[in-house]
Amino acid sequence: MEIIICKDFTDAPGPRFKSQGDFSGEAFREDFLIPKFKEALEQKEKLVINFDGTFGYPTSFLEEAFGGLKEKYDKELILKTLEFISNDEIGLIGEVKGYIDSNERKTKK
Fold first, then answer.
1. Of the given ranges (23-32, 43-52, 53-62, 95-104), which has the lowest mean pLDDT?
2. How far apart are CA 60 and CA 38, in angstroms?
């Protein structure tokens, strides 16, 4: 099971919240990530997130999408279920895991 962000969502990820513009981290989390995450859990499979092929990722997008996943799921379960691919940007996987692992979230809209 895989989400290829550039094909399934956009090649130009946007801001943190839906209210701030198109292709937000909030929209990605709610419309793509959570439904696929639930499906992966039900099927006891890994969910691969492929970050390659975009024009880059705003940190607010990543923090909202992946840090926001902790609002519904335990971080150990998230890290056990998600697998990441990022050949285009070497440090991206560590950054995303940091948002999942962090106890701080920026939640103001």
1. 95-104
2. 23
- Is the pLDDT score of 13 beyond 80? yes
In contact, 99 and 16? CB cutoff 8 Å: no
Strand partners of residue 50: 4, 85
Contact 66, 96 (CB under 8 A): yes
Instruction: Identify the pLDDT of residue 102.
Output: 85
Structure tokens at 2: 């895989």
Pairing relationship of beta strands 47-50 and 2-4 according to DSSP bridges: parallel
Provide the sign of the torsion angle of the four alpha carbons 85, 91, 94, 98, taken in this order.
negative
For 29, 48, 71, 77, 79, the CA distances from 18, given in Å and listed in that order, are: 11, 24, 17, 26, 25
**Cα 81 to Cα 104: distance, rounded to the nearest angstrom:** 21
Query: What's the CA gap between 71 and 35, in Å, rounded?
Result: 14
Which pTM does this prediction carry? 0.92
